[in-house]
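Table S2 (text version). Query chain:
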Amino acid sequence: METTKQIMDEGSGRMQKGLDFLEETLLNLRAGKASTNVLNGVMVDYYGSATGIDKVASVTVPDARTILIKPWEKNMIAPIEKAIVNANIGLTPSNNGEEIRLTIPVLTEERRKAIVKQVKEEAEKARVSLRNTRRDAVEAFKKSQKDGMPEDEAKNGEAEIQKVYDKFSAKIDAMVATKEKEVMTV
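Corresponding structure-token output:
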């Protein structure tokens, strides 16, 4: 028989992981202003091994529309450019022999709406994950009740996991509202 604390801790932990994943996903969505996050997951061939761009160059954001990549070795300019093009992130690199510049294009109204739609889809996936976690916790309380947990303790646990679910759901709503505002602001 699991205790109330074990069930609550597992449920809260899974909900937090879902929220963290949504946060990471939203960071990687381009909102019309420069962010080094768009390069997360772009791997460059560094002497035969796939390596993140931030491991072979300094990546900075000098202004709201530009990402500047300064490779630590000049011979890495071509492989970095190739990796950015192959990653298909919608940015075209340009270099001056010393550094690579990525200029973030202005988003069209249509593209902004598409990004907001994508944000809402990702949020719905996170909500489904939360609901599944809540359902699993409620089932765990019911199973524990059959295994000898007092009925009132099981019912209180179900009410508590609902409160945790509501708290995480509100956080998702806030994250979506913030990202939507960021995307739609010209």
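Notes on Table S2: The chain has two domains: 4-28+108-184, 36-103. The longest strand covers residues 57-63.
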